Amino acid sequence: MTTPITDDAARVFADPTAYTDEPRLHAALTHLRANAPVSLVDHPPYRPFWAITRHADIMAIEHDNVLWINEPRPVLAPADADDLQRSLLDAGMGLRTLIHMDDPHHHKMRTIVSDWFRPKAMRAMKTRIDELATRYVDKMAHIGPVCDFAQEIAVNYPLYVIMSLLGLPESDFPRMLRLTQELFGGDDDEYRRGLTPEKQLPVLLDFFDYFAELTVARRAQPTEDLASTIANATIDGAPLSDIDTASYYVIMATAGHDTTSAAISGGMRALIEHPDQRERLRADLSLMPTAVEEIIRWVTPVKEFMRTATADTEVRGVPIAKGESAYLSYVSANHDEDVFDDPFTFDVGRDPNKHLSFGHGVHFCVASALARMEITSFFTALLPRLEAIGLAGVPQLAATTFVGGTKHLPVHYRLRF
């Protein structure tokens, strides 16, 4: 075994603003991959963790879901937020989604919605998603020639898709958007509701109150929507607990659109900043499948997940003790020089593209097919009508340690009606 390495560059993971400064972020990640791919980070307000930055190591950790588990620390959060989450769970109130669970319970819970995202179901959804994509391209045409693409288009289109699947009324969409931004935006000055976990707790309680009412309604009168599937699900013959039901709604309503909106806004930005690739794709839409994978790699909306060791082990020769946590940097893995040729080149024809934006192993994103379809439908609808586009201001990225991307993208453009 080698001596544990602590590299100052790894402090970038303990700084939510690093994701707003991409040159600084990628300089640190490139250095870590080359010099300290397994580095100890001990930097308040976070408890110590091991930063893992190489693609192969992250794949190996995610593949071994017995040695490396999600509980009790599935994402990086300040120590006081971790403590609050544990106390809430002990009181039967804390958030417990698929990302908080391990097998066998995780597998049983995942099965509840898996049929909704299988190929047959995706084919049935395609017509509706294509219609929604066209609706938002039409909206873009009518509000032009200038808009904040991230806030006016990229946020609302996937929100509409997932809320429609859940069967929620359109009048509630703005509330869901605000709560999602507050839940994932706890590190961002624009989105967070408060500066402490206690002040941010009402966001979660608002979600729970809303979905508790929804559960009662769908159990009384089931309908043909995803919300009814969740409300009436059973595990081993018993209905889900109130906290598991509410948590399921939360992960579907938030991760089901926030990550995709980040991919679409970041993808639009990439196509603007790489006009040769935009024109290449516009001239040959058969490249759309590889272009979508490259957008997802390039943006990497989910920045990290955490895993905790169930036994003493090692990664790349570095000893990691039982109970210690590893931070899996998907952003770094998606730029690993050992896996990607010219990783800092945006290439709509990149193939192969072994990105880890959807994770790997048993926790691979259950709705990945939906995300791919939404991105594909939107850019397939947009590009044939797009005559010109450029930045109308400086893009702004969200401060985060978990999920995020381009939150403001002012653009000027010309679209055919």
TrEMBL record:
Signal peptide residues on this chain, from the entry's feature table: none
Coiled-coil parts of chain: none
Keywords, alphabetical: Heme, Iron, Metal-binding, Monooxygenase, Oxidoreductase
Cofactor: heme
PROSITE patterns noted in UniProt: CYTOCHROME_P450
Domain of life: Bacteria
Annotated Gene3D superfamilies: Cytochrome P450
Family label: Belongs to the cytochrome P450 family.
UniProt protein name: Cytochrome P450
